[in-house]
Write a structure and sequence with these properties.
mainly beta, Immunoglobulin-like, 4 domains, five-stranded mixed sheet, five-stranded antiparallel sheet, about 45% strand, signal, Carb-bd-like_fold
Length: about 450
């Protein structure tokens, strides 16, 4: 076969090329419009910083919110502090953040927002700030290795600029691991006006979190109520300061904790993903054993560190399809099944079965001393019409009826004249949750 295009093939190729061109002109909003270049210099006091780590993060705007930033490119500065990126996708829905880290720890980690332009080279220079440094020695009261301890400071006083919710990702809490000999070095700390910290924390291993008391020269409970004690835990670092903290001994052990696991399913045993599980401590029923967690695709959930005590477990569906309930069924935490956690002993098989919620349409007709109420009940999950029982009551008077295909009609007699609030209670079924609703009627 000849390598040349035939007279029939050439027009077809031309038409295809024209179609691609027109398709490009009709590209939807947010489609790629090209790629851009980004370069710049990382400096400190006018001099370039060599071998600094420069990372480029992209997040995507969806509606009014942005996705979590994802790292797309990394470069190391040369001896003069220069970096460069090429082939950066440019879309109207993309924005980028530049994160610069000096591996020596002598400067403060810095981030800058940047907008690449398709077909052009954008210059973004980054001027770093001199950091402060903390060193010291920590030992354990039991003589064990302190290598599982960490020392850190809070960054609540740091100016977050316009980083918004992504700030913690680009500038996380400053912590350093303690070495086997007890020494630590905490570098890269903002200093000067931003260098005042409410405390220096020590935690890890079997020990509870404690903070330096710089007057008593020891570790104490963090965030005490006494203003004078708060002042004793505060530390201010000058620009470029390298401070050695006093030697301290950790003594306060954490309470033993246990691992609590379970599974959330429907009544047929099918796992339910994305259900929110909360573990609350009794007797108050308010304190939570850690943040609520969401069930995995297997329906499983895990609370890794639950202190000894008695708890109730509640499951909620953020979408409202499945009815909320406590372990053992029902909405009353005081009547729910208790979970007793002993020191260090894992608690397994904390399993909850959820029923579908139901909606109800109510028709009413008032008579002389009576009210007639008709209901139509629908199962939220499937749209089917369940069975069950309904009860209509008012001040000791009750009327009960069987629900057939989601429908039932009840007439309650002996009611006083005027506007009355009747109580409608649906029993539910093995797979559909019950409910209670107030029905208002104007009795003649």
């Amino acid at each position: 076969m000849s390598s040349r295009l035939s007279s029939r093939t050439a027009p077809a190729v031309a038409l295809a090329s024209l179609g691609l061109l027109l398709g490009g002109l009709a590209a939807p909003a947010g489609a790629a419009t090209g790629t851009g270049k980004l370069s710049g210099t990382v400096t400190l006091d006018g001099g370039g910083i060599g071998f600094a780590k420069v990372q480029l993060y992209r997040n995507v705007i969806k509606g009014q919110e942005s996705t979590k930033p994802v790292r797309v490119k990394t470069d190391n500065t040369d001896g003069r502090g220069r970096y460069s990126f090429t082939g950066i996708p440019v879309k109207s829905s993309y924005n980028y953040t530049l994160l610069v880290t000096d591996r020596t720890g002598r400067t403060v980690k810095t981030f800058r927002h940047v907008d690449p332009v398709a077909g052009k080279k954008v210059t973004k220079n980054v001027r770093m700030k001199v950091a402060a440094l903390l060193t010291g020695t920590v030992v354990r009261a039991d003589g064990g290795s302190p290598a599982d301890l960490t020392v850190g400071v809070d960054i609540d006083t740091i100016d977050r600029g316009d980083a918004g919710p992504d700030f913690d990702m680009f500038f996380p809490e400053q912590r350093a691991a303690v070495k086997a000999d007890g020494s630590f070095t905490l570098s890269g700390l903002p200093s000067g006006p931003a260098g005042t910290y409410p405390n220096v924390k020590v935690s890890g291993g079997p020990y509870a979190e404690q903070c330096y008391d710089f007057v008593a020269v020891r570790l104490a409970d963090c965030a005490p109520q006494d203003p004078a004690s708060l002042q004793r835990q505060q530390i201010t670092l000058a620009k470029g300061e390298a401070r050695t903290l006093p030697n301290v001994t950790v003594t306060k052990l954490t309470p033993p904790v246990s691992r609590l696991t379970g599974t959330v399913t429907d009544t047929s045993g099918t796992p339910l993903k994305g259900m929110q599980v909360t573990v609350r401590a009794l007797p108050s029923g308010e304190a939570e054993a850690g943040e609520p967690v969401l069930t995995r695709s297997s329906g499983g959930f895990t609370f890794p560190k639950v202190p000894a005590g008695t708890y109730v477990v509640r499951v909620d569906d953020p979408d409202g399809v499945w009815a909320k309930q406590y372990l053992g069924g029902g909405l009353n935490q005081w009547a729910s099944q208790r979970v007793v956690v002993a020191d260090g002993r894992p608690v397994r098989n904390v399993d909850v079965q959820l029923k579908s919620t139901a909606t109800v349409k109510v028709g009413r007709k008032a008579g002389k001393g009576s009210a007639k109420v008709a209901v139509l009940i629908t199962r939220t999950l499937t749209g089917s019409k369940p069975g069950g029982r309904v009860v209509l009551s008012h001040e000791g008077r009750t009327k009960e009826a069987t629900v057939v295909d989601g429908r039932a009609t009840l007439t309650l007699k002996g009611l006083p004249k005027g506007t009355q609030k009747l109580r409608l209670t649906y029993s539910g079924t093995s797979s559909t949750a019950g409910f209670t609703k107030t029905v208002t009627v104007k009795v003649q």
